[in-house]
Amino acid sequence: MRIPILAANWKMNLSRREAKNLVEDLLKVAFPVSQREVVLCPSTHLLTEVGALIEGKANYGLGGQNLYFKESGAFTGEVSATMLRDCGCSHVLIGHSERRAYFHESDKDCYLKVEAAMQQNLIPILCMGESLEQREAGKTKEVVLGQLSGALKGQSLSSGEKLVIAYEPIWAIGTGKTDTPEGADGTISVIRQELGNLFGERIAQQVRLLYGGSVNAANVDALMACPNIDGALVGGASLKAESFARIVNYQTQASLAN
Ligand code: PGA
Q1: Total structural domains in the chain?
Q2: 67-87 tens-digit pLDDT
Q3: Are 72 and 80 a contacting pair, CB within 8 Å?
């Protein structure tokens, strides 16, 4: 069984004080049952502090938003996988569309970053997704599968639990437009099929596949009801304790019946 992950991507937001208030509020209202994991991905300057606030909280993990694939050295401004581990991270976002667009990250960069993360026992949350133009040209699958194999083909993966993938259509990020649950589920099932080709069926069935792109308190239940969607990567709605707590505490048919 794949345990759902609700991941918060705070991007370049929040002061130390704001982050502290947010986490404290969140911990009061978001009670992930044992069958859910929450991963907070703050900016690098907040990692140690947020890590201390969630330390010992069952099912809470800490993630970096990026890394550089070298372990150390003269790379001004960068942070390595070892350093993220040193801050207490269990996860790291790799290949977010904002990094691909603004910092020109290629699939090859993503490959090296995924490899570096895995070598340090960090779980990569590899992000991928198509632009509006690509979608309108009917190229969604082609684009996503290209990003998938570019970052993963040739990696050695002993267990699918060591990898998370977030499908985030670029046109849905921060726009208030979400893919339909069926549409997102369909693309995600294609990703899982391709993971089967790359790593075998057993591993493909273990990898958690998240949807991201304007996930909020109002649409999370329908998205999480889809069979192939194992969680959400949330930007804007993760910056408020109330909305992110509602996402963490998403309702399933089973929980509604109780
Ligand atoms: P959004 O961002 O939820 O604000 O659309 C998601 C993301 O960029 O990961």
Answers
A1: 1
A2: 999 999 999 999 999 999 999
A3: yes
Ligand 1 proximity of 236 Cβ (cutoff 6 Å): yes
Residue 110 in contact with residue 71, Cβ under 8 Å? no
**Helix or strand or coil: residue 101?**
helix
Contact at 8 Å (CB) between 187 and 210?
A: no
Q: What φ, ψ does residue 127 adopt, rounded to 5°? A: -100, 145
Q: Which residue has the tokens 């304007």?
A: 214
Pick the atom of ligand 1 nearest to 175's CA.
Answer: 5
Query: For position 252, what pLDDT does the model report?
Result: 85
What gap in Å lies between CA 164 and CA 48, rounded to an integer?
Answer: 23
* DSSP codes of every residue in 106-168: -HHHHHHHHHHHHHTT-EEEEEE---HHHHHTT-HHHHHHHHHHHHHTT---S-GGG-EEEE-
The tokens 């970096």 sit on which residue?
64
Q: Which two tokens stand for residue 191?
A: 């990703």
Question: Is pLDDT at 253 greater than 80 in this prediction?
Answer: no
Task: Give CA–CA dist 25/153, Å, rounded.
Answer: 41
Which range of residues forms the domain containing residue 14? Answer: 5-257
Whose C-alpha lies nearest to ligand 1, atom 2? Answer: 235
Residue 73 Cα to ligand 1 middle (Å):
32
Give nearest CA residue, ligand 1 atom 7.
235
- Mapping DSSP to helix (H, G, I), strand (E, B) and coil, where does residue 85 land? helix
Residue 27's domain is classified under what CATH number?
3.20.20.70
Residue 91: which H helix or E strand, with range? Answer: strand 91-94
